[in-house]
Specification:
With about 375 residues, the protein is an all-alpha fold. The protein has one domain (about 5-380). The chain contains 19 helices and two strands. The chain has helices spanning about 5-25, 50, 65-75, 90-95, 100-105, 110-130, 140-155, 155-160, 165-180, 185-200, 220-245, 260-280, 280-310, 315-325, 330-335, 340-345, 345-355, 360-365, 370-380, and strands spanning about 40, 60. A two-stranded parallel sheet has the order 1-2. Helix 13 crosses helix 14. The longest helix is centred in the middle third of the chain and has 29 residues, at about 220-245. It is globular, with a radius of gyration of 21 Å.
């Protein structure tokens, strides 16, 4: 028991540091609305009246994607036609409705409470995930503590919290689905992924978890097919509802995929160019950390899969499609410092830490370099 106490304290300190950093986003009279990144109302007539009426912090830099889902949260059935001009891609944003619904429910439908709930649900997901990750990283060793911290402090996770996005809650749902698969509970795995698909459509690529349950019989194939339909049904039904509003535009999407390695190669060349012209500036360093981490994670997943694929490890099955997604990400996903790539591939980062937890320390450190931009951006506003 005495040996566990120092590591328990270390875990508690990470949680405490997170909560202290989160508290720095609180503004008296405005709550935690800074996290949503609603833009300055230069064109006030285009903002929803229900949001204009709520005191909120405005972002002078034009806001970020969380603002769109926050607007959906105050009217999650899209009954007010005034919502469309406030969204950049209305039907695309509306497809990702789950966490707008959860905020609406937590806020009891009152816009002021709904915005607070939306701003904070990422933090709630972070705390729940901190507890759930102890399943794979039990308290008691430096390696376990590092990997647990790496999952929680990586840029994709903290960027989602700091910008009220969909990625941290999505990662929690994927982790929940993995837990269900580890317990051999196909029905729960399907239901969790079905709900997760309403949060982000890319969450459905974790249906590769079904391979965990596959047996070489027609009955097994039919069973998986039936539960696959159950998993896809929520997205299909909600898209059909959106079709009644947006018609053909309900299926519109943004170009987030490209030829394999093209986005990664573009980012690598950008980093080299920036380092040559600007030296060791913070931006290229953040970019390099994200790039190296992703490459190491993908290589580790591929290497481990070579020898363990017959075991059908749930985390390996869940992480593999996100590795492919990262390799095929368009340069728009890599754009920025370090870009949305760390959020899009967040389940890969979690899966890497679980399946590669016995790897040499240099591999683990390289695969968790996302901690550098994550901590500095969220906790120190760099």
């Amino acid at each position: 028991m005495g040996e566990l106490r120092p590591w328990a304290i270390a875990h508690a300190l990470v949680v405490a540091a997170f909560l202290i950093a989160l508290a720095s986003y609180y503004r008296p009279g405005y709550g935690f609305t800074e996290l949503i990144r609603l833009p300055v109302d230069h064109h006030d007539e285009y903002e929803l009246a229900s949001i204009r009426a709520v005191p909120h912090v405005e972002d002078a830099n034009g806001g970020y994607d969380g603002q769109f889902y926050a607007r959906l949260a105050v009217d999650p059935l899209l009954r007010d036609p005034a919502i469309d001009p406030t969204l950049d891609f209305p039907s695309y944003r509306a497809r990702r409705i789950l966490f707008s619904w959860t905020a609406y429910i937590m806020g009891l439908g009152r816009p002021a409470w709904v915005l607070e709930a939306f701003a904070l649900q990422n933090a709630i997901a972070w705390l729940v995930l901190a507890w759930l990750l102890l399943r794979w990283f039990p308290i008691g060793s430096a390696r376990s503590f590092f990997l647990w911290s790496g999952c929680l402090l990586t840029h994709g996770m903290l960027s989602s919290v700091g910008n009220a996005l969909l990625d941290a809650p999505s990662a929690l749902f994927v982790a929940w689905a993995v837990t269900a698969a580890e317990h051999e509970r196909l029905a729960l795995t399907s239901l969790v992924l079905g709900a997760a698909g309403l949060g982000r459509e890319t969450n459905l690529i974790a249906l590769t978890l079904f391979a965990r349950f596959l047996q070489p019989t027609w009955r097994s194939v039919a069973r998986l097919g039936a539960w696959g339909i159950v998993a896809i049904a929520p997205v299909a039904l909600w898209t059909d509802y959106l079709r009644s509003i947006y018609r053909d535009r309900a299926f519109a999407t943004v170009g987030a995929l490209a030829a394999p390695f093209s986005g990664l190669a573009w980012k690598a060349s950008t980093i080299v160019r920036d380092l040559k012209s600007g030296g060791l500036a913070i931006g290229p360093i953040f970019d390099a950390c994200a790039l190296v981490a992703l490459v190491v994670q993908v290589l580790a997943i591929a290497w481990i899969a070579r020898s363990t694929w017959r075991e059908r490890s749930p985390w390996l099955l869940a992480a593999a499609p996100f590795a492919l997604l990262g390799l095929c990400a368009h340069q728009v996903v890599w754009a920025g410092t370090p870009g949305a790539i760390t959020r899009v591939t967040l389940p890969l980062a979690l899966g890497f830490n679980v399946v590669a937890r016995r790897a040499p320390w240099p591999v683990l450190v390289a695969g968790n370099l996302g901690i550098v931009p994550g901590v500095l951006t969220f906790m120190f506003r760099m």
